[in-house]
């Protein structure tokens, strides 16, 4: 069994006052596997710059410049994230969405709808009790 140890105690991460880190469900629920490198880069950028509600409003030009990405590639990455249900977009606003359980685990879409609503209700109840 591997024993974990902090490599650099002086650089131990702390939750920043302005917001928090990337949600671990991005990997645990395999959302990241539905993204190519460009979409993942855009998602990381949006998570980093978003406010507590997940909102940001960087222009396409600013995002493309910061990510060294062509405008057409940025458009595709944005479409990919929307299709993966990771972000919502209404120019000029981006919203990073809560990570719902991936729909690929559901066989029947009617069951998936109910299961997704139950999962959201369970999460809301969990949050309200803490």
Which properties best describe this structure?
130 residues, mainly alpha, single chain, Arc Repressor Mutant, subunit A
What series of H and E elements makes up the topology? HHEHHEEH
List the uncertain runs. 104-112
**What is the helix content?**
40-55%
CATH architecture verdict of the largest domain: Orthogonal Bundle
Helical element count? 5
Number of domains: 2
N-to-C span: 33 Å
Task: Return Rg in Å.
Answer: 17 Å
- For CATH, the homologous superfamily of the largest domain is named as Winged helix-like DNA-binding domain superfamily/Winged helix DNA-binding domain
| SS-derived structural category | mainly alpha
- The CATH topology of the largest domain corresponds to Arc Repressor Mutant, subunit A
The proportion of strand residues reads 5-15%
Strand arrangement in the largest pleated sheet? 1-3-2
Produce the secondary structure layout.
Layout lengths: L24 H4 L8 H13 L5 E2 L3 H7 L4 H13 L3 E4 L2 E4 L12 H21 L1
Antiparallel strand pairs: 1-3, 2-3
Fold and architecture overview:
- Strands 1-3-2 form a 3-stranded antiparallel sheet.
- Helix 2 (37-49) crosses helix 4.
- It has 130 residues and is mainly alpha-helical.
- It folds into 2 domains: 20-99, Arc Repressor Mutant, subunit A; 101-130.
- The protein has 5 helices and 3 strands; from the N terminus they run H-H-E-H-H-E-E-H.
- It has helices spanning 25-28, 37-49, 60-66, 71-83, 109-129, and strands at 55-56, 87-90, 93-96.
- Helices cover 45% and strands 8% of the residues.
């Amino acid at each position: 069994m591997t024993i974990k140890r902090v490599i650099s105690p002086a650089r131990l991460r702390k939750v920043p006052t302005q917001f928090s880190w990337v949600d671990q469900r991005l990997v645990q629920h395999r959302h990241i596997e539905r993204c190519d490198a460009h979409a993942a880069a855009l998602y990381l950028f949006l998570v980093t710059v978003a406010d507590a509600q997940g909102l940001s409003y960087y222009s396409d030009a600013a995002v493309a410049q910061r990510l060294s990405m062509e405008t057409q590639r940025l458009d595709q990455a944005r479409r990919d994230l929307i299709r993966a249900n990771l972000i919502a977009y209404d120019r000029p606003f981006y919203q990073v969405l809560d990570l719902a359980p991936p729909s690929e685990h559901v066989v029947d879409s009617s069951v998936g709808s109910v299961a997704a609503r139950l999962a959201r209700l369970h999460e809301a109840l969990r949050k309200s009790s803490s």
